[in-house]
Amino acid sequence: MSLNKQTALPTLVVLISGSGSNLQAIINAIKAGRLNARIAAVISNRADVLGLQRATDAGIPTVTLDHTRFDSRAAFDQALQAQIDGFEPDLVVLAGFMRILTPDFVRHYAGRMLNIHPSLLPLYKGIHTHRRVLEDGGHEHGVSVHFVTPELDGGPVIIQAKVPVLPSDTEQSLAQRIQEQEHIIYPRAIQWFVEGRLTLEGNQAMLDGKALTRPAQHLN
Ligand code: GRF
C-alpha cells in the first residue's frame, strides 16, 4: 500500500450524505488509536449536513459536490473521482453516501472502496431495510461491511454484526441498535484494510491471506 509521505499513515477519503455518525466513529477510532489512518477529506453530495460539521470540528478538510448541479450521473461521478483522487487516498470509505455509483467509478476504486449497509447481506439490499425486516416479521437483522463492486450492495461481505428483532421494535429502535454495531465493525474493517490484512482478489474478500468464504462475525 502506498503510504502518505507526509504522515506515513494510510489515507482515507470518506463520502457522506447525511448525519455522519459512522464518520464520527471512524474519527473516534483514530483518536483512540484503534485505527491507524488519517482522513484526508470528507466529501458530501449534500450541503449543510451534520457530517460536514463533524469533519470540520475534527479539523478535516471538506468538499461539497452537489449532484443536482450535474447533467448526468456519469458527469457527477467523474467530478467526484477527480476530487477524491486529488487526495490520493489508499481507501475510499462510503459512510451513508446515498448515491448509486456508475460502473466506471466503481471499477476505478476496485479493491479500495468499502461500504456499510444496514442488513445481513445478501438479504435486504437497497433502502428501508429496517422497515422491510419488520414488515416481514423477521427475528434477526444486522449490518454488513462490504467491498464495493458494480452490483448494488452486492460486493463481497467482510464483516457482519447481528441484532435480534424484539417484539417491541420500531424502525427507530432497530436503527439505533444497528448503528451501535455499525460504529464498532466499520472502524475494525478499515483497520484490517490499512494494516494490509484485508484485500479483494477477483470477487473474493481475503483476510490474512485466506478467503472469507463467510463474513467475519462481530459477537457482542
Ligand atoms: C447507516 O445506517 C449506514 O448503514 C447506511 O447509511 C447510514 C449512514 O448513517 N449506509 P450515518 O450518516 O453514518 O449516521
From TrEMBL:
Site for Raises pKa of active site His, residues: 153
GO molecular-function terms, A-Z: phosphoribosylglycinamide formyltransferase activity
Record's function text: Catalyzes the transfer of a formyl group from 10-formyltetrahydrofolate to 5-phospho-ribosyl-glycinamide (GAR), producing 5-phospho-ribosyl-N-formylglycinamide (FGAR) and tetrahydrofolate.
Binding residues for (6R)-10-formyltetrahydrofolate: 73, 98-101, 115
SUPFAM superfamilies found in the cross-reference section: Formyltransferase
Domain Formyl transferase N-terminal: 12-190
Species this chain originates from: Thiothrix winogradskyi
Active site residues per record: 117
Listed HAMAP family: PurN
Binding residues annotated for N(1)-(5-phospho-beta-D-ribosyl)glycinamide, in chain numbering: 20-22
Gene name in the database record: purN
InterPro entries, alphabetized: Formyl_transf_N, Formyl_transf_N_sf, GART, PurU
Enzyme class: transferase
Pathway: Purine metabolism; IMP biosynthesis via de novo pathway; N(2)-formyl-N(1)-(5-phospho-D-ribosyl)glycinamide from N(1)-(5-phospho-D-ribosyl)glycinamide (10-formyl THF route): step 1/1
Record family assignment: Belongs to the GART family.
Name by which UniProt lists this protein: Phosphoribosylglycinamide formyltransferase
